């Protein structure tokens, strides 16, 4: 199993959202069967060939057997961030 890569997973979600917008625009013009290259949202960034309807039905673009990487909440990010440094005393 791959090491989780949250930053890469977030990039994949953002890129895939852009691809979905383009695909939706083309689907509105009657091109619903076209296959697009999405990227695995687990963070491995494996290219995946899917139609818009497949990605919509599945809810995300994940390679078979890859775990879903969920965006972390702001609270979780704050818990992982080190506390701010205290200023040094003036001498």
Overview of the molecule:
- Helix content is 41%, strand content 11%.
- The chain is of the alpha+beta class and 91 residues long.
- The chain has a domain at 6-68.
- Strands 1-2 form a two-stranded antiparallel ribbon.
- The termini are far apart.
- Mean pLDDT is 82; it is low at 72-79.
Strand order of the largest sheet: 1-2
Radius of gyration in whole Å, from Cα? Answer: 19 Å
User: What series of H and E elements makes up the topology?
Assistant: HEEHH
Q: How big a fraction of the residues is strand?
A: 5-15%
**What level of helicity do the residues show?**
40-55%
User: In terms of structural class, how would the helical and strand content be classed?
Assistant: alpha+beta
The number of distinct β-strands equals 2
Biggest sheet details: 2 strands, antiparallel
Question: Can you tell me the overall shape?
Answer: elongated
User: pLDDT under 50 segments (min length 5)?
Assistant: 72-79
Determine the mean pLDDT.
Answer: 82
Q: What distance separates the N and C termini? A: 52 Å
Number of helices: 3
């Amino acid at each position: 199993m791959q090491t989780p890569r949250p930053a890469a997973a977030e990039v994949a979600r953002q890129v895939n959202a852009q691809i979905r917008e383009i695909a939706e625009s083309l689907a509105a013009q009657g091109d619903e069967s076209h296959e697009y290259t999405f990227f695995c949202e687990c963070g491995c960034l494996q290219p995946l060939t899917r139609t818009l309807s497949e990605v919509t039905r599945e809810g995300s673009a994940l390679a078979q057997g890859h775990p879903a990487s969920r965006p972390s909440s702001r609270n979780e990010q704050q818990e992982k961030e080190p506390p701010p440094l205290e200023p040094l005393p003036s001498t």
